[in-house]
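Example record

One chain of 276 residues, shown exactly as stored in the release files.
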Amino acid sequence: MTEADVPAAHQLSLAVRWPHRLEDWQFVQRLGAGYVAEAEGPDGPVIAGTALCWSHGAEFASIGMVIVSPDWQGQGIGKKLMSMALGELSQRTVLLHATEAGKAMYESYGFKAIGAVHQHQGTVFKTPLMQLTVGERIRPLGARDAANIAALAARAAGMPRATVLSALQNVAEGVVIDRYNEVIGFALLRRFGHGYAIGPVVAPDNERAKALIAHWTGAYGGAFLRIDVSTSSCLGPWLTELGLVQVDSVLAMARGEPPLCDPGMKVFGIINQALG
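Predicted structure tokens for this chain:
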């Protein structure tokens, strides 16, 4: 896949009712490598399938944006694209998020389910006031915070996240929880799909994660918001009460040993289902 393929890939995702904007495709394509499947259409070659992959250091990687046109499904295109993407990633542990329909194909490549991610979205009109402890405050993310949030994200995810976070800071707004001048959590928000996406959200516990999310639901009250959270976050009922209802769920899968995460720092909201 080249940058010139992105508009056609975007049209393919619209055909399968994915919400990604052209800008969302451009963002993920620039961060990684990818492949497209070309087929002969009535007016010339068309893109019939896509797959992207991203390396996160020397040990981990992820695969996403795996799409096959409804007109070309059942012909092995998805498997060929997966094989090519996996070939890019050497012996790294590979992570992805799978629909129930794609589960069997991924299992055939050695992927195993390690959890689930729930997509919540909607509009929040009233955000509760979330209290932090003495000495803590939420403030805007600054340029000098980059190394700190990369370190927190690496602890929470169990793998390097500096590259994707650096790219996100060019397209997102960010806030951190500052405790006596020490950054202990953060959350980003950016334009995505039909509105705005909250994520990643990284914090030491549920209450601080709620405070970070509440900051954005309050700042963007009345806007369409989306956040993707793991089952282990236990935030689902609270998000639903806010007005961000669960509309979909996918399996988190891994091929190889999953990353070891620091139990003292957690990912409560992921960047998106492609990048994890």
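Notes: The helical segments are 6-15, 22-31, 77-88, 103-108, 146-157, 162-168, 206-219, 236-242.
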